[in-house]
Amino acid sequence: MGCALVRAGFGMLGRFFKLFGKQSALVKGTFKLPEGESKLIDLGDVMAGGVQVVLSRVEGKIYALDTRCPHEGGRLVGGPLHDGNVICPLHNYLFDAKTGEVTRGVCSAAKKYRAEEKDGDCEIWI
Ligand code: FES
Known about the structure:
mainly beta, Rieske Iron-sulfur Protein, eight-stranded antiparallel β-sheet, three-stranded antiparallel β-sheet, 1 helix, globular, binds FE2/S2 (inorganic) cluster
């Protein structure tokens, strides 16, 4: 799937908006993400304050979770969903792609981001 990040305002103004949770990024071409699949997307420079999300398509809708696993610091991965769940391969915990709730394992929920798809592209608020 060829998603492309078009806009992620991570300059000074972006940092200001991030304080209030209003920073958004537009990912182009998300219409190509098939049902039951997920893909990793970097929003900005992950080493410099950006975030990495796993975009998933469930029942036709796009959902975004932070890839940082709330268990012990692993990373959620992209690829085929497991009955609507994203996996962290470090201990094989599963997280509901729609809500971030853990469905296999014992830990808190993965962080979920607001994601809205329109005209084949997706805006994500981080
Ligand atoms: S660190 Fe992700 S399941 Fe343990």
